[in-house]
Amino acid sequence: MGRYDYNAVDDYGRKARGTMSSPDEKSLREQLAAMGMHLVSQRQVAESGDRALFRKKIKRADLIDFSYHLKTLLGAGVPLVGGLSDVAEQSTNPEFREVLRDIRRNVQSGATLSGAFALHPDVFPEVFVSIMRAGEVTGNMDGALSDLHRFLTWQEELGKTIRQATYYPMTVVGMVSGLIILLFTFVFPRFLSIFKGAAIDLPLPTRIVIAISESFRDYGLYALGVVVLGVVALRMYGRTEAGRLRVDGWKLKIPLVGEVIRAIEMSQFSHFTASLFRAGVEMTQTLAVVEKVMGNRVLAAVVRQAREELIAGGGLSVALRKSGEFPPMVLRMVSAGETSGNLDDTLENVSAYYDREVPAIVKKTFAILEPAMTILLALVVLGAALSFFLALYKMVGSMGAGK
């Protein structure tokens, strides 16, 4: 992957220049063509380590502030280039400030704002570019920026909700797992070694606890190595297209967890589709963008198939229903939106429903896992205590019989 400085022109003769990562010149030409621009000249440049890394430091909060402030400035009548200058200089993130300066330079050179966004795909996601492009075509850039701000704010709040709901339960799960390992690795062996050396026939619970403790001691590192290798192998397999499709299918079938994943994906589908369609993006193009931003490949494939059937003249709700992957409520709302001609409004209702439902599902899932882990720990400790007292009782009984 190399970086290229390039000059390009769109179908209206407007010029644009910038820097983009691409495997080769042919791919660069294709990337620009997908953005509605034609490559005029290019020059490969050395990849700076700092430049390659700084994109990772740009957070969603930076984009939220950017969309809000630019919308406010344009609404107040400030010219686009001046608004970009003001927003860039007010940014507290030096890396993002440099990106905004590059966008301003490209806009000054004749590029559209969406085209300038598209030159930074590692900062501005495709849905961002598509909504902005639709706003430019319809002349409603304020509305497009408002949609972007609302969309990004929703993403940020959803992420915070999920993190808050999962932090405590995951901490509990980690602590319980660590405590179980500690008990079987260090605590139980110190007591059970006494019974193991006694000349008595140990009860079955005691023998089981001793066997588990010895397995932890003798094969614990090997088991850990196997788990690590398994996780690495699964991650590598999941990076292939076929592997990710298979793994994502498994995720949807996991009890409780699959319900959470599906709810989050439905929330994203409805938000993305409603935002793009409301902004004026044609439905087939909307689905093309939504497919790329869906996190689960199985559901993304459903969206792709729906788009193909829509192009062939079919209906969206019918195409989604064929897969069996979309919940009935979503299908009913999509069908109602198609019939009434208010698909964006009905999808917004779906979004509002899942905005409430996702946190509730996450909390319900972990509310079940927490007591389950507590019960598991209690059973482990109770079983170990039972094995200890049974062996002690038998040892004391054998000593009494010996007298």
Fold and architecture overview:
The protein has about 400 residues and is mainly α. The protein folds into 2 domains: about 1-125, Receptor-associated Protein, CATH 1.20.81; about 160-403, Receptor-associated Protein. The chain is about 75% helix and about 5% strand. It has helices spanning about 25-35, 50-55, 60-75, 80-90, 95-110, 115-120, 125-140, 140-195, 205-240, 240-255, 255-280, 285-295, 295-310, 315-325, 330-340, 345-400, and strands spanning about 1-10, 15-20, 35-45. The chain has a 3-stranded antiparallel sheet. Helix 10 packs across helix 11. The radius of gyration is 29 Å and the shape is elongated.
Task: Indicate the radius of gyration in whole angstroms.
Answer: 29 Å
The N- and C-terminal alpha carbons lie at a distance of: 83 Å
CATH superfamily of the largest domain: Type II secretion system (T2SS), domain F
Number of strand elements: 3
Short description, anyone?
This protein has 403 residues and is mainly α. Helix content is 77%, strand content 6%.
Primary descriptors:
single chain, 403 residues, mainly alpha, Receptor-associated Protein, 2 domains, three-stranded antiparallel sheet, 3 strands, 77% helix
Write the layout of secondary structure elements.
Layout: E1 2-10, E2 15-22, H1 25-34, E3 37-45, H2 49-54, H3 60-75, H4 80-90, H5 94-108, H6 113-118, H7 126-138, H8 141-196, H9 204-238, H10 241-253, H11 257-278, H12 283-293, H13 297-311, H14 316-323, H15 328-340, H16 343-402
Antiparallel strand pairs: 1-2, 1-3
Helix pairs in contact: 3-4, 3-8, 4-5, 7-8, 8-9, 8-16, 9-10, 9-16, 10-11, 11-12, 11-16, 12-13, 13-14, 14-15, 15-16
